[in-house]
Each structure stands twice: as structure tokens, then as C-alpha cells.
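From the methods appendix. Each design record in this collection lists the discretized structure first, followed by the designed amino acid sequence. Records were kept in a plain field format so they could be parsed without special tools. The example shown here is representative of the layout used throughout.

RECORD:
C-ALPHA CELLS (451 positions):
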């Protein structure tokens, strides 16, 4: 009982401090992880076994951590090192690609292909944001797309805010489509043993159907405004050529090959047996080897704060799991749903969406995974169905408010630096209906396909 009290207090304190942003979130999660080890596992449980199981270092030294020769397995409780190593590897790859100008080149190349026409640019940049976010962190996608959008808006004389808002939403939508597109999906996939193609054929379908609706929604919402703004004559000689954005041609070619290899490995990892941890490390090693002169600089640019945040977070959630708190929450959801699968799915997707609109979706998704596992075990509900509802809820709910996802914060900050301030009211008025629409579409697909 004492261990449960400690676990709940530490978890609530961590969430409050993360939301208020009084202290950097990686410091919060690491301090709360240390308190969990001392008070929950030490004072409350007197269990060194719980500490070892939660730290989970021994999993790294097992063969199936790197290569699965048979059926995929669920990861053990505690720190999900597979997620952390995979994200580290992708961060190294993305930094390598950014350093040679890959993202600016891609944006400018597409802009040139549509002859710098504002409405075609608007549509293609939304699609580009979705596709890139399926494989690359949405923060990176928005960082470059928003910057290029503002650059083009100044040359083509249109208001970049509608385009940036649309790109933000589509980046979050694209992240929902694959296992590597958004951190909650990486955690869900590695924790429950789902492959890249499992996500593509399930959340990918939901995201694909939703994208059509989203493109129509934003076109009807912003099309007239964008057309009205782009009426001044444009001096096309001032527009930068796509080739001028490449800073290292050899590095550019190598980065493109590494990205293509990473995508192929992710798509086929269920067949090859390579785990996402292996893929992440292979990608990182290949990038560092190809950019050996800049290897030190690339490693310095990796977002270690996010990796430390993940590490501490997994320990705190491990405290809730080891003490049985999450099983009680699952039992509560089961009771209020009356064991009805349709009600249960609705609770999970809307609870996930609403919570993720206001709090970081990473700790929320991490907390919910053991809960849906318990619901599946107790009520005989298909675990994969619950996993897809959780993924779509957490990924899309974050789009509804300016603080719901990191991509939102980055996009708004990029616009603000150039004098385009996006206020809370303006953001929510445009983005909340789109988020509700996608959650409804996802819920209907879940009902039709799985129930």
C-alpha cells in the first residue's frame, strides 16, 4: 500500500511539473525516476528485483533484443531500451541529412515542380509534411517546412500562417501512420511487439483516409485567403534554385542512400528479423562513418535531453506497473464500459485525444500501454485494436492545441520569430475541428474493421 501511494504521488508530481514547464522535462523525469527507485522499490517494496527489472539493462545483452529468429516478443516492463536506441539512431541520421541541405533541397524542388503556384504549393506541402513525418521526427519536418514556407511566402507574397498550421496538422497525422513516425507509436510498437507493416496496415489506413478529409478541410478553410494574398507580381529571378541549397553534394547522395536503406529495413524488419534497435544503430553507424569528419559535431547535436526524458519516464511508469496501480486503472475503465468493447474503444481514443491535447502524449501513451494489456487480458478484447485506438488518439489529439505536440510548439515559434504570431484562439479555432474530425473517422474505422 505504501509503495502504491509513493508511486502515485511521484507520477502526479512528474506530470504537473512537465505540464507547467517550471523545470526542464528531462530533469523532472530523472529526479522522479530516482525517487521511484528509492521510495517505491526501496522503502515501499523492499525489492531489489523490481529495481533490476525496471532498469532492464540485461535485455540489451540478449540475442532477441537485436535479432528475432522466431515470433516477435513483447518487451519486458521498465526502461524500453529498444525505443531509446532507435530514436538515437534516427536523430543521428536526421542531423546528417540536415547538415548537407537535404530538407531545404526537397522543399525547394517541390516548390519548383508546382511552378511556385500558391494553391498547388499549399496542397503539396501538406502531403510532403505527411509523408516525411511517416519516417522522420515531426519536429524536424516542421522545423524545415515552416522555415521554407516563410521564405517562399516573402518571395511569393502570401500569408504563411495558414500553410504552417496545415503542415503542423499533417505532420502529426503522418506520424500516426507508421511505427517510427511518432514517439508514442515507437513505444507502442516495441512494447507490444508490432512491426512497421502492422502500423501501416492499421493506423496507416486510418491516417490515409483522414488525409483526404484533412486536405479538403484545409483547402476550404484557407484556399480563398491564400489566393487573395498572392496577387502581386513575383520576380522569379529572386527565387533560390533547389541545387543552391545543397551544401555537400557527396554527403547529400550518401544521406539519400542511408534514408532509403533505413526505410527498406523498417518496412522489412518483420521478415529480416532485425529489431528497430538494430536498425537504429545501423543507421547511426552508417551516418557517422559517411560523415566521419563531422561525426563529433553530429553526435553533439543529438537531443540527449529527450533520450534522458524517456529513460526517467520509463522508470516512473515501471513504478506504477510494479505496484499494480495500472491494473486498478484498467479495472476501472472495464467497469465504466461494462465490458462493452465499443464503449471501451471510444473511452480509450477520446481519453487519449483529450489528454494529449493538454499534456505530453509520450508519458500518457507509456502509461496506457500496460492498461490496455490488462484490459485485453481480463475482458478478452483484441489487444491490437486497443493499441491502434491508443495510437490514433495520442497522435491526433496533440494537434488540437498549441502545446499538444512538440511539432506545434516548433511551428508556432518559427512563425513568431519572423513576426507571424499565432495566438491560442486562432490556433484552436482552425485546428480543433480537424482533430475532432480525424478522431471520429478513426473511431468509425475501428468500429467497422475490428468490431
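DESIGN:
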Amino acid at each position: 500500500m505504501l509503495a502504491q501511494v509513493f508511486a502515485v504521488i511521484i507520477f502526479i508530481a512528474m506530470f504537473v511539473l512537465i505540464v507547467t514547464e517550471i523545470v526542464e522535462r528531462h530533469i523532472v523525469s530523472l529526479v522522479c525516476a530516482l525517487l521511484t527507485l528509492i521510495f517505491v522499490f526501496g522503502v515501499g517494496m523492499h525489492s531489489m528485483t523490481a529495481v533490476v527489472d525496471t532498469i532492464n539493462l540485461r535485455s540489451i545483452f540478449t540475442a532477441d533484443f537485436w535479432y528475432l529468429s522466431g515470433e516477435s516478443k513483447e518487451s519486458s516492463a521498465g526502461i524500453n531500451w529498444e525505443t531509446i536506441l532507435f530514436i538515437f539512431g534516427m536523430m543521428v541520421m536526421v542531423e546528417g541529412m540536415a547538415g548537407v541541405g537535404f530538407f531545404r533541397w526537397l522543399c525547394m524542388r517541390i516548390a519548383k515542380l508546382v511552378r511556385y503556384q500558391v494553391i498547388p504549393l499549399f496542397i503539396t506541402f501538406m502531403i510532403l509534411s505527411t509523408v516525411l513525418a511517416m519516417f522522420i521526427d515531426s519536429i524536424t519536418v516542421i522545423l524545415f517546412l515552416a522555415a521554407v514556407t516563410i521564405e517562399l511566402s516573402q518571395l511569393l507574397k502570401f500569408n504563411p500562417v495558414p500553410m504552417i498550421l496545415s503542415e503542423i496538422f499533417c505532420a502529426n497525422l503522418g506520424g500516426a501512420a507508421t511505427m517510427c513516425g511518432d514517439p508514442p507509436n515507437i513505444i507502442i510498437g516495441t512494447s507490444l511487439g508490432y512491426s512497421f507493416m502492422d502500423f501501416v496496415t492499421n493506423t496507416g489506413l486510418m491516417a490515409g483516409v483522414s488525409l483526404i478529409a484533412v486536405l479538403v478541410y484545409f483547402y476550404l478553410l484557407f484556399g480563398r485567403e491564400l489566393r487573395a494574398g498572392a496577387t502581386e507580381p513575383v520576380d522569379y529571378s529572386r527565387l533560390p534554385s533547389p541545387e543552391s541549397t545543397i551544401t555537400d553534394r557527396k554527403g547529400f547522395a550518401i544521406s539519400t542512400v542511408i534514408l532509403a536503406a533505413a526505410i527498406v529495413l523498417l518496412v522489412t524488419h518483420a521478415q529480416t528479423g532485425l529489431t528497430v534497435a538494430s536498425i537504429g544503430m545501423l543507421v547511426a553507424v552508417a551516418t557517422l562513418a559517411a560523415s566521419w569528419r563531422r561525426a563529433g559535431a553530429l553526435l553533439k547535436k543529438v537531443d540527449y535531453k529527450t533520450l534522458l526524458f524517456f529513460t526517467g519516464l520509463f522508470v516512473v511508469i515501471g513504478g506504477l506497473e510494479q505496484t499494480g496501480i495500472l491494473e486498478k486503472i484498467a479495472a476501472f475503465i472495464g467497469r465504466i464500459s461494462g465490458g462493452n468493447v465499443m464503449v471501451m474503444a471510444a473511452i480509450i481514443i477520446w481519453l487519449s485525444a483529450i489528454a494529449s491535447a493538454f499534456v505530453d502524449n509520450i508519458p500518457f501513451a507509456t502509461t496506457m500501454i500496460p492498461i490496455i494489456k490488462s484490459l485485453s487480458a481480463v475482458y478478452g478484447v483484441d489487444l491490437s485494436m486497443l493499441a491502434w485506438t491508443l495510437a490514433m488518439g495520442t497522435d491526433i489529439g496533440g494537434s488540437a492545441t498549441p502545446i499538444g505536440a512538440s511539432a506545434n510548439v516548433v511551428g508556432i515559434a518559427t512563425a513568431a520569430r519572423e513576426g507571424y504570431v499565432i495566438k491560442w484562439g486562432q490556433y484552436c479555432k482552425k485546428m480543433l475541428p480537424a482533430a475532432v474530425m480525424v478522431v471520429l473517422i478513426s473511431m468509425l474505422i475501428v468500429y467497422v474493421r475490428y468490431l
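APPENDIX NOTE: The chain has a mean pLDDT of 89.
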